[in-house]
Write a structure and sequence with these properties.
The protein is mostly helical and 467 residues long. It is built from 25 helices and no strands.
Length: 467
């Protein structure tokens, strides 16, 4: 959900400032008492006081509105909705009731009813621009950016000097992936209020995105003439310089930002990269070290930390973090084994059995403790490549692995055609972890029995003079 101004906060504030026309003096006193409680943030007391009054006058709209506001202030949105529904049932033309109801529905996540209630308020007071702006905010908050833009455009055309409207149109176009239009409206907003750092940052980021780096840099440096201590814009100025390969200029901007208290991962990373590009490894290393501490899952930073460490003669540290980079980049062993196995099956299906064999050997290297790959490689040689001599050697190695690890009497579970074992199925295991890469093995044999039978058959047949 995108960040927008809260409708509820507006209508609560409006209620607190509302000039209520009382029916009589006593009613006026009660209303003022509830308002005073709310102004002092005593919302629960205000709710109870309103309730006592409504026991005698249940249709008093002013008190109902105050009660709903006090309930909403403590996040009791369902109760507030119930009260506001009473208001619009009593008076279907009550603008404030409908508008406040739109805010409550928004808080409850009922977008359709929020739009309905807001539209009712607009119908009752079509000249009220604020209601229409809030309808646009509803659409924007629900990520319906095209609808939000269409609501805002007529408002903008009637008042091109409204900073909020121009900026919000820029936001809509940015979300719609129309950077040229977004830059146009953001630039109009900056013409009205040049010192808005948020809008300035958005335009610079858009320039970076569309590879107009010089324009982004010019805007950043122009803003820094107004506010040289804005670390966010200093970062963007440094980043533009880095992308333009002005590494000395980038380093200076990031150091300037750091001097103002910027200790962000982004700045450490790019000042480190700026030093790295200048081959100033000893100066780069501490920045990559700090950036990696902030996010130990970032493989790119880990890589540069390792490189700058060993190039700064911190050879042990370099080895540790370059190896760690490999671990960060490589998927878990079981997943990678499953990927290799399925890839081999796909190559077999495409009649590229030689490539499938190479993939299976890569899988074996990746997971040498998984003896099943010995069997798969043997089977690949045997049935897909018709190389019985090689198949025999791998079948024997497969059987030998049982002697080395668990004794001759080990009877592995049956292997089915999809590559899952009976034990895996019984335990609810993941079939994808050990697929058989297109192997077509009968349920009548375990892998070990099958391998033993094939060894006997190959020796008996004397294929290629193998004994």
């Amino acid at each position: 959900m995108k960040s927008i101004s809260s409708i509820v906060s507006f209508f609560i504030l409006g209620l607190l400032l509302l000039v209520i026309r009382p029916v009589n003096g006593q009613s006026n006193d009660d209303l003022n008492h509830v308002k005073q409680l709310m102004e002092n943030f005593r919302y629960d007391e205000a709710t109870r006081a309103a309730g006592r009054f409504l026991e005698a006058d249940s249709s008093n709209k002013a008190m109902l509105l105050l009660q709903s506001a006090s309930l909403a202030a403590v996040n009791k949105y369902r109760e507030a909705r119930t009260v506001l529904v009473r208001v619009v049932r009593i008076d279907s033309a009550n603008i404030r009731g409908w508008f406040n109801l739109a805010g409550i529905y928004r808080q409850l996540g009922n977008f359709a009813m929020a739009v309905f209630a807001c539209n009712r308020a607009i119908t009752l007071d079509p000249a009220n621009r604020y209601f229409t702006q809030q309808l646009a905010s509803l659409y924007y908050g629900n990520e319906e950016f095209e609808k939000a833009k269409n609501v805002l455009l007529p408002l903008y055309r009637s008042d091109t000097l409204d900073f909020y409207l121009v900026k919000q149109l820029g936001n809509c176009y940015a979300e719609l992936k129309r950077p040229d239009s977004a830059i146009l409206y953001y630039s109009k907003a900056l013409a009205l209020y040049p010192s808005d750092a948020v809008v300035t940052g958005k335009v610079i980021n858009l320039y970076i995105k569309i590879k107009m780096l010089q324009k982004g840099l010019a805007l950043a440096d122009r803003y820094l003439l107004l506010d040289s201590a804005n670390t966010g814009i200093l970062q963007l100025s440094g980043f533009c310089r880095y992308l333009l390969k002005d590494y000395t200029g980038a380093e200076q901007r990031f150091r300037q930002s750091a001097a103002l208290g910027d200790d962000s991962r982004f700045s450490h990373k790019y000042v480190g990269l700026s030093y790295y590009k200048q081959e100033r490894y000893e100066e780069a290393e501490p920045h990559f070290r700090q950036a990696f501490r902030m996010d130990t899952t970032d493989s790119e930073i880990c890589f540069y930390y390792g490189v700058t460490a060993y190039r700064s003669m911190l050879t042990d540290t370099g080895l540790v973090y370059l190896n760690r980079t490999l671990r960060l980049l490589m998927p878990p062993t079981k997943f990678l084994s499953a990927l290799y196995t399925e890839l081999a099956g796909a190559w077999n299906a495409n009649l590229r059995s030689d490539t499938a064999l190479a993939i299976l050997k890569m899988a074996r290297d990746n997971d040498p403790a998984n003896d099943l790959f010995l069997f798969r490689i043997a089977y690949q040689y045997d049935y897909f490549l018709n190389q019985p001599k090689e198949a025999l050697a791998w079948y024997r190695e497969y059987l030998h692995s049982f002697k080395d690890t668990a004794g001759d009497n080990l009877n592995p579970p049956m292997q089915d055609r999809a590559g899952t074992t009976s034990t895996e199925r019984e335990n609810g295991g993941n079939p994808g972890e050990e697929p058989a890469a297109g192997l077509n093995i009968s349920h009548q044999y375990s892998n070990r029995d099958f391998a033993a039978r094939r060894i006997e058959e190959l020796q008996h047949q004397g294929k290629n003079n193998v004994r």
